[in-house]
Amino acid sequence: MSGIYIHIPFCKQACHYCDFHFSTSMGKKASMITALRKELLLRKNEFVNEQVETIYFGGGTPSVLDTEEIDHILDAVYDNYSVVEYPEITLEANPDDLSEKKIDALAASPINRLSIGIQSFFDEDLKLMNRAHSAKQAESSLAYATKYFNNISIDLIYGVPGLTNENWKTNIKKALSFNVPHISSYALTVEPQTALDNFIKKGKVAPLDDDLAQQHFELLTQMLDAFGFVNYETSNFGKPEYFSKNNTAYWLGKKYLGIGPSAHSFDGEKRSWNISNNPKYIKGITEGELPKTDEVLTIQDRYNEYVMTGLRTIWGVSLRKVKEEFGEVYFNYIKQQTKKHIASDFLTINDGKLCTTKKGKFLVDGLAADLFMVNIV
Question: CA–CA separation, 202 vs 213, rounded Å?
């Protein structure tokens, strides 16, 4: 089973923390949709032996599309690929786009999963992040969407300057009150050359506090665990049967096709990414060319990626797989590197799987980096 990711590179306005590829100009939206459809056609041979299980509209802000535009893109998927009978079809959406009329239209479309970028239920946080919606819109969109969709994920951001533990708990409680089956929650990070980076350097926004972010993460895991959510990936919490099939496929190393500017693809051995420029992407596709860069992954690349993705999930890193797929050198290396982290109760081995402990979850990226193989001869 495989997945198709479709990048919609448009947003109403730029969030202060975001470094994803997007444009706030909608002038090329029609041309972009035509190009997305053509890229799907041009690349169909890459998936000739694959069945598509998930279709994911990401961005950017895919909810700036109307349902007719979404259907037009989906038609190109179904015309050129073999799709399972009941695929997971996700649309990322912002609350300000989710009017009752829009939700009604989406409910009547093939979209069967919404990922709603709430981020916070406090206006002061939303203003700091430069989100396009208000706290009131966040609540009203969820109240209406949950009447028509039972598979909804919401995004929340923690570690925001000025966000107290009490307000963070209020955010979580508010999210739980809507009975959504999936929550994705990320620590606010400072990406280079973003508005947030600039504001912190100029002293307009307080620097991020890692200790506060860790407190928020621990509160999050405790509260969601009490409500039956499984922390199946570091930043993702789902009720049983509601894990994101699209994202799980990424973490388990399955093939996926990325369509649109800046979108990434993976075929098991090679990774590729499209150009992050809307006009150049449209021009290339229109001329029948794929404006992408390919990279064949070395065994070291594949090992490092497996360690990174495996440690972030409940499925962990299979030591048997490391030995069989990467060889004795990598097997002996990871066993040696993990000793100090097991002794510190950050990592543990259960049934031959290396996993983070409760204590090590928040530190997973650093732990994974310490297990990476670097410059092997």
Answer: 22
pTM of the model: 0.95
349-361 average pLDDT score: 96
Task: Count Cβ atoms within 10 A of the Cβ of residue 157 and give its class: 0-12 exposed, 13-18 middle, 19 or more buried.
Answer: buried
C-beta of residue 30 within 8 angstroms of C-beta of residue 284:
no
Angle between helices 278-286 and 29-42 (to 10 degrees): 50
Torsion of CA 319, 324, 328, 332, to 10 degrees: 0
Rounded to the nearest integer, the mean pLDDT of the chain is 95
CA distance 255 to 4: 9
| Gap between the Cα atoms of 18 and 5, Å rounded | 19
d(CA 44, CA 335): 41
* C-alpha angle 3-98-104 in degrees, rounded to nearest 5: 85
Question: Would you say residue 255 has pLDDT above 50?
Answer: yes
Specify the pLDDT at position 1.
66
Q: Which residues pair with 23 in a beta bridge?
A: 10
